[in-house]
Write a structure and sequence with these properties.
about 500 residues; four-stranded mixed beta sheet; three-stranded antiparallel beta sheet; iron; monooxygenase activity; Cyt_P450_sf; Cyt_P450; heme binding
């Protein structure tokens, strides 16, 4: 008996040693981390969890294929920064790389069957309907009116008031409030007034933020069996998630029902447009799922993008002055009237500066798909059915092979040639995704960011408190963990 046990232990030790030696050899060949038997590279991951983006970027850059394998406890997945592989995942073999059931289950309580939480036919139907609405001139004009009201009636007066008092303000929180007002107007036709000068606690906004955080926690840090058990027992974060979702659902469904009653009136928000397309075949729950998905997609992305942009501007006064000069050449100095669509479109240097900022600090730094059927990627890596594959937007924007030796520098000029904005491949700059799932709100997001910057920079100097690079947190977006405290000063 003792002999048998010794034999088993010796065999196990031998297997572990052989696997470790093989893994070390694979690591040297592929540039990825050493994957130890059973535990994978979990210890390496935990040591670097506070700097996950930098850690994984190093492996992407050092890998000959710009794709590496990582994993823990028997589960392996790929992370890539190779544009050809990104194109394969997002476009060429799009059907083979869905969002996957794990992500869908984690977000179903919040997003239901909304466009950003489904694959296949259900996604195609919503995409087709939404694509038509997002290209209409009337929706763009509705957005422009909403932006003008929010900027000139709330954002600028709030900063002016803070400036007069000589106080500091969290710019990221300000942009979050601003953006939530705008996305709710666009999606629901409802103004939650988060950016009211009194900075009110808006119940729906707070519940939505909490629901987003807790839903993200499910697929980032908690095993599905654990959160499903907690949900069944109604304990821990699952109990809190249920409570805030009750608030979100009550509000959303009440707005859907109100819009149904108003059918026939001229309402330009997305919800009214969907009801106008076919009010009988869409249930209240389905309409709720669609609109909540759009709120989630637009709620934080432009807010965090603007926050990182203004932090970069604080360290690049030359870029800031060039923006002021270029905006002044398009819009009369001191003008307080709303910008026109043509004026915003003509702000080429500002668009270049915003893209350069998002290259370095993408609002969604990494995105993950699931392999439907085993495949060979263009970079030579093999992926198996059920494996997760992530494309690393943050790493792609910092690769010398793609952007040159000055890839870590903030240089808007790299996007301009002969005075014109230069488009790059969306697989080299997948900030708005690419292929069939390319962001429908890309143009609207750029309009919103341009409007805010063009209105703020000529009027205010936003002095950042502290010069250290803000610490990031990854929720669904690249948020600044401690916000962005600034002291606004009138120019």
């Amino acid at each position: 008996m003792l002999w048998s046990l010794s034999f088993v232990l010796a065999a196990a030790v031998g297997w572990i040693v052989r696997r470790t030696i093989q893994s070390r050899a694979d690591s040297q060949r592929t540039g990825g981390p050493v994957l130890y038997p059973v535990v994978g590279n979990v210890f390496d991951f935990l040591r670097n969890s506070h700097r996950f983006l930098e850690w994984s970027t190093e492996y992407v850059i050092n890998s000959p294929s710009n794709t590496f394998t990582t994993g823990r406890f028997g589960s392996t997945f790929k992370i890539t920064g190779n544009p050809a592989t990104v194109e394969h995942i997002l476009k060429t073999n799009f059907e083979n790389y869905p969002k996957g059931e794990h992500l869908r289950q984690s977000l179903t309580d919040l997003l239901g069957d909304g466009i950003f939480n489904v694959d296949g036919e259900l996604w195609k139907i919503q995409r087709r309907l939404a694509s038509f609405e997002f290209t209409t001139r009337s929706l763009r004009e509705f957005l422009m009116d909403s932006l003008a009201d929010e900027v000139h009636s709330r954002l600028l007066p709030t900063l002016a008031s803070v400036s007069r008092d000589g106080k500091e303000i969290d710019l990221q929180d300000l942009f979050m409030r601003f953006n939530f007002d705008n996305i709710c107007k666009l999606s629901f036709g409802v103004d939650p007034a988060c950016l009211d000068p009194s900075f009110p606690d808006v119940k729906f906004a707070q519940a939505f933020d909490k629901a987003t955080t807790l839903s993200t926690l499910r697929f980032q840090k908690i095993h599905p069996l654990v959160w499903k058990l907690m949900r069944a027992l109604n304990v821990g974060p699952e109990r809190e998630l249920k409570e805030v979702l009750d608030v979100v659902n009550e509000f959303a469904v009440s707005v859907v029902q109100k819009r149904r009653e108003e059918k026939g009136r001229v309402n330009q928000d997305l919800l009214s447009r969907f009801i106008g397309l076919d009010s009988t075949s869409f249930s209240d729950e389905f309409l709720r799922d669609i609109i909540i998905s759009f709120v989630l997609a637009g709620k934080d992305t432009t807010a965090v993008s603007l926050s990182w942009f203004f932090w970069l501007l604080s360290n690049h006064p030359g870029v800031q002055q060039e923006i002021i000069r270029k905006v002044g050449s398009i819009v009369a100095k001191g003008s307080n009237r709303p910008f026109t669509y043509k004026e915003l479109r003509d702000m080429v240097y500002l668009q270049a500066a915003l893209c350069e900022s998002m290259r370095l600090y993408p609002p969604v730094p990494i995105d993950t798909k699931v392999v439907k059927n085993s495949d060979v990627l263009p970079d030579g890596n093999c992926v198996e059915k059920g494996m997760k594959v992530s494309y690393h937007v943050y790493a792609i924007g910092r690769m010398e092979s793609l952007w040159g030796k000055d890839c870590l520098e903030f240089k808007p000029e790299r996007w301009i040639h002969d005075g014109q904005f230069v488009e790059v491949s969306p697989f080299k700059f997948p900030v708005f995704q690419a292929g069939p799932r390319v962001c429908l709100g890309k143009e609207m997001a750029m309009l919103q960011m341009k409007y805010v910057v063009a209105a703020l920079v000529p009027k205010f100097e936003l002095v950042v408190v502290g010069k250290e690079e803000p610490c990031y947190g990854i929720n669904m977006t690249l948020i600044m963990k401690d916000g962005l405290p600034v002291v606004p000063k009138l120019r």
